[in-house]
Amino acid sequence: MSAFNAIGEEREIDRDEFTPGVEPQPTWCPGCGDFGVLKSLKQALPEVGKTPEEVLTVTGIGCSGKLNSYLDTYGFHTIHGRSLPVARAAKLANPELEVIAAGGDGDGYGIGGNHFIHSARENHDMTYIVFNNEIFGLTKGQTSPTSPKGHKSKTQPSGSAKTPLRPLSLSLTSGASYIARTAAVNPNQAKEIIKEAIEHDGFAHVDFLTQCPTWNKDARQYVPYIDVQESDDYDFDITDRAEAAEMMRETEDVLNEGTVLTGRYYVDEDRPSYTQEKKAVGELPEDPLAERYFDDDAEWERSYDLLERHT
Amino acid sequence: MSDDELIWRIAGGSGDGIDSTSQNFAKALMRSGLHVFTHRHYPSRIRGGHTYVEIRAAEREVQSRGDGYNFLLSLGDSFARNPQEEAYYGNEEIKPLSENLDELREGGIIVYDEGLVSEEDVEAINLEERAEENNWHVFPMDLRGLAKEHGREVMRNTAGVGVTAALLEMELEHIEDLMADAMSGDVLEANLEILHEAYETTQEEYEFEHDLRAPTGEHESEQALLSGSNAIAYGAIDAGCRFIAGYPMTPWTDVFTILTQNFPDMGGISEQVEDEVAAAALAVGASHAGVKAMSGSSGGGFALMSEPLGLAEMTETPIVLVESMRAGPSTGMPTKPEQSDLEFVLYTSQGDSQRVVFAPGNIEEAYEQTRLAFEIAWDYQIPSIIIYDQKLSGENKNVDVEFFDREPAPDLGSTLTEEELKEAAHDASGKFKRFDYENAEDGVASRSLPGQKGGRYLATGNEHSPVGHIEEDPDNRVFQMERRLEKLEAIRTELDDERESNQTYFGEEDAEYGIITWGSSQGAVVEAVERLNDAGHSVKGVSVSDMMPFPEQELTEFLEGVDEAMVVEMNATGQFRGLLQKELGAYGEKLTSLLKFNGNPFEPAEIVEGYEVNVADEDREPTAQVRIEPAAGD
C-alpha cells in the first residue's frame, strides 16, 4: 500500500483545482508574460491527467519564483538559482512525483547555470521552465544573461558589452533530451509544448519568452512570432542533433534582430532518464525510497552487521 | 611517557601503502589484546611527500596519539622528486628517515630501508651521532632487496612489519591472519615468505640490546577498529539515513565515500553533484520529499552550503550536515586538523541562526551524536550539524563491537501520515496548515510530504503564513519567528533535562582548577588531566559537545566549582572560549586559553606544560608551538 495516495489517482480533474483559494490573483504586473506560463500549466496539467497533489512545483527567486504561489500544487519556492538541485533530489527520493522546476533567465542561466548544465547532462525526468524575459525584473530592470548586446540599464549604463547567452544551444550541448521555446503571446503552442515536456521521460527544457512590460519589451515586441514547425521557411529534423543545433543557433541570433522563432527544437526519446540509468547500475532502489519510511515491515540494515571488516 | 606502551611510526611517501600497512598492523595489535589509537599525518598530494601513521598500543585504554613515539619504521619515498638533483625542497628520499627524528623518544628504535637510501645520505644527516646522543637502536635492513627476492618491490612494507615484529618479539599469528584476509594465491604466499624471512633475518643478524617490547593485554569482548568517519557514517545508517549528496573535499570525503559504498546494498541513494550548493540543496529536496537525507563538506565547501542551510532553517526542512574542519583560512592546509570553523558553522547564512550543532570528542561520541543529530532534526524539523575535524575523521581506535548492537531509528519524527492529515488543520481552500503556530507544540508544526492526499502546502524561503504563502504581516512574522525559536529552547530543555549529557567529564570532581575543551582535542586533554592529578595538581576537565544550543547550566556549574580554567582548542583566536563567554556572559577573568594551530593536534605533554605555565604560573615559556592567551584583565 502506498503512503502517497494522491499519486496516480484516476479521476476527473478540473483546471480550477489548480487555482489556490489563497491569493488566486497573482501580483505580477498587468501584461506580464508570466501569466502565460501559469495559464498553460493550469491547462496542461489536467489534460495530462495530473492532480494537484501529485505535482511538486519547485521554483527559484524572482517574479517567476512566485509561480507556485498561484498554482495550487505541492510547492517549494527555494532560493535564487537552486530550484534544480532541490527538484532533482525530490524526484530521486520519490520518482512517482511529477516534478516541475521553474525560474527566470537570471536564475537558471546566470546564478544557477551550473545546476542547469548538470541537470541537463544527467537527464533527470522533469520539466524545467525558464521564464525568459531578457531582464532582471523583480530587482527593477538590470541587464540579465539573455539581455541583448548593447542593452542599457542602471548596471550597464554604457550598454552591455556582452553577447547574450544561448539557452537552447547550451541545453543541447549539456544533454537535455527535450528542448523547446515558446512564448506567452502564443498560448496554444505554449500549452501543447508544456504538455509534451511533462510527458517526456527525461530532462525537458522549455525556454518560455515572457515579456516584461515594465522593464523590457511588451507583448507586441514578441509578435509576430513564428512557429518553426508550421512555417515553410524552416525545415529541420528535431531528432537530428546537428540540424537542431543549426536551427537553435539561428533562432538565438535572430531574436535580437526582432524575429521571434519558437517551437520544438530537439527531442531524443531514446535517451534513458537519470532514474533509469541509476537503476541500471544498481544505485537507485526499485521502489520509491520515500515509501520505505512508511512501511512497517521494512527491515532496516544496521551498522552492527558491517563490523566484520573492522575486527 | 610511560614505557609500557608502543608508539610505532611508519613513514614513507604517499602512495607507498603506508595507510593499509598501518591499518593491518593496528588490527594485529588490537587482536593481540591491546588498546590501539592511530594518528595520520599526510600531505596534500597523490604521490610522494612526507607521510606517516602512528599506532599507539597499550594494555590500558589509549585516547590520544601520546607524546612523541618510540619505534620508527622508515620506508623509502618511491615518489621522491628529483632524487638525482639537489632541488630546493632538498633530498626527498631521505625524508622518511630524517624528518621523523625530532620526535623519537630516547632509547627508541629505528628501522630503515638501506635498499632505498644511500649510505652517504644517512651520513649526511648525522644519524650515528644522534643515535648515540639519544640512545637510539638503529637497524638498517635491505627491505627492498628482501621484497624483490621473494616477490615484488612494493612488498617491502611487509618486510618492514616482519622486522618490527622480530624486534618487538611479537607473535606473527595475527599478522598472518590479516594478510590472509586481505590477499590470496601467489601474492599471499610471497608476502608470507617475506614476512618470515624478515623476521628470521632480524633475529639472526642482530643482538637485541633495546628494552622496548610489544606490550601484552587481553580484551574482555570483541573489538572493532574504526575511524571517526566510520562512526559518523554508521550513526547515519542506524538513524535511517539513506540519502547523501556531496562533492569531494578532504577530509569530509571519507564519510561521503563510506556511505556511498554502503548505500546501494541498503536501498539508499548517493549523489555526487556539481558543487556544494547543489549537494546541500539536494539534501533539502530529498528530505522535503520524505527521505532522511544528509550532506556535508569541509570549510570551503561548507561555505557554499550557507544558502541551502538557511533555506532548511526557514522552510523547517530537517537535514543533517557534517563539517569536517581542516586548517584555514581559505584553502589553508588541506590535510591538517584545526578547530577553527566553529564560529562559521554556528552563524553562517543570513538571519538569526536556527540550527543544532554537535561537536563529538571521540569515536563513540561521533556515532552517538550523529544518531542524535538525525533524531532531533526530524523531531524538530531543523538542520543539525556535526562539526568535527581531520583528526577525528582519520584516527582509528578500538571500540567494543557490542557498542553498535542497537535498534535502528528510521522514524520520520513529526511527519504526518495521510490518515493523520485528515485530522489536521486546513484552511478554507483545503490547504494544509503546515506552519500552524496555533497548534504547534514546542514550536513544532507537523509536516506533510508531496504526494500525500490532503497535505498540499507551499514551502518557501520567504516569511510565510500557516499554509506557506509569502506573508510579511508583522504579527504573522513575530508568531512564526517565535515559534521557530521556541524549538531551540525545547531542544535545549531536552538535552539538559531529559537526556544523558553529551558533555564528557573527567579528573577530580572537587578540583580547584579546570581544563575545558571541545571536539577532537578531548583525548589528549583527558590524558593530560590524568597526568596532572598523578603529579599532585588538582584538576578536573570537561569536553563539550553541545555547541548549539549551548549547555549553559552545565558549564556554569563547572566554572562555579573552580578557581580558574584553561580552554584548550586547536585554533588561533580562541573561538570556543569566545562562545563560552558569550553564552555565559561571565567568567572572563577565570578563563585562559591554550591554543595550537601549527597543523598538528595536541600531545598530552603540551597540555600538561601549558597548564604548568598558564595556570600553575610556573615562570617559564612553553617549549611547544602553542599560544597562551591570558584571562580578561590579566
From TrEMBL, chain A:
What the entry lists under Gene3D superfamilies is as follows: 3.40.50.970
Alphabetical keyword list: Oxidoreductase, Pyruvate
Q: Which superkingdom?
A: Archaea
In its UniProt record, a GO molecular function of this protein is: oxidoreductase activity, acting on the aldehyde or oxo group of donors, iron-sulfur protein as acceptor
The alphabetized list of GO BP terms reads: cellular respiration; organic acid metabolic process; sulfur compound biosynthetic process
Question: Does the record carry Oxidoreductase as a key word?
Answer: yes
Q: Which InterPro entries match?
A: 2-oxoacid:Fd_oxidoreductase, OFOB, THDP-binding, TPP_enzyme_TPP-bd
| Cofactor annotation | [4Fe-4S] cluster
Per the record's keyword annotation, is Oxidoreductase included, yes or no?
yes
Q: Residue ranges of region Disordered?
A: 140-166
* Start and end residues of each Thiamine pyrophosphate enzyme TPP-binding domain: 61-208
The UniProt entry, under PANTHER family, shows: 2-OXOGLUTARATE OXIDOREDUCTASE SUBUNIT KORB (PTHR48084:SF4), 2-OXOGLUTARATE OXIDOREDUCTASE SUBUNIT KORB-RELATED (PTHR48084)
Q: What name does UniProt use for this protein?
A: Pyruvate:ferredoxin oxidoreductase or related 2-oxoacid:ferredoxin oxidoreductase, beta subunit
Q: What species was this sequence derived from?
A: Natrarchaeobaculum sulfurireducens
